[in-house]
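Researcher: Re-running this chain for the archive, since the previous output was lost when a drive failed. Same request as before.
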Amino acid sequence: MTPEARPGLADRPPRRWRLVRASREAVPPSVRRFMRRARQRRLRSALPWAVVGGLVVLVATGWWVVAATSVFGVDQIRVTGSVVHSEEEVRAAADVAVGTPLARVDLAAVAGRVAGLPAVERAVASRDWPGTLVLTVVERVPAAVVPVGDEFVVVDAAGVGFQTVAFRPDGLAVIRLATPEVDQTLARDAVSVLAALTAQLREALVEIAVSGPAGIELRLADDRVVIWGDATENDVKAGVADALLAQEGTVIDVSAPDVVTIR
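Model: Regenerated structure tokens:
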């Protein structure tokens, strides 16, 4: 028999289903314990990822603040060790704008630019948080002076001319070159000879004259000359010349220290 044929069935209203949350008492304790443990396991498994995610966000935010904003920007450039060049010259050579994020400053490039100053032998750039860029300068050490026109060029042990002065500084020997400008190779050879001189030769020295790579001469007081030749065997030549200063003669030739002549 179909539903339509069953007496009174067609007159019944349709059933409507709905979800009803069961009361806590309706759920067995064992089920509640199982569900509680399941939630705890899910929380424990998710906690490490939440911590890692939080750390990533924190680090990314911190790096953005440090590297991309002016919060930790350069607000001071401190210069140490510079005497020949003023601090303003060193800062200008560094070429770092105030406000540049300190973390993004290329320290090697900055040090290279500062080392390009004539009197700077080497430079080191470093960070002093939160906002100071430190430039440490090591200047060239004066070894002698080379007359150029009416002025004197101060050179270091490598023969590099790094400062021009109007008067000869006290305590620096004179190297007179035949070239119109400072020839670094010739100046370096002359400085190496100067470093090998004995105290007696140094006291008598008026100047070192250099006409070429093998044309080094010591011009001494009383118009005496020591022909040195090239800048080899300097210690041997210095010892021989020192021993011969007591001999008569105005020219001492130690260019070949095994065969010395005096005239």
